Amino acid sequence: MMKTMRFQPGTFLEVDDLAGGRKVVMVCKDGVTFWDMLDAKEATPLVIHPSMNPVEIGTFAQFSAAKGLQRATRKVIAFLRRRLDTRLDSDPLFVMRVLWFAAQKGAGDAYEPDDGILDWACEQAQSQQQAAARIHGYAEKFCVA
Question: Do 14 and 57 contact (CB within 8 A), yes or no?
Answer without folding.
Answer: yes
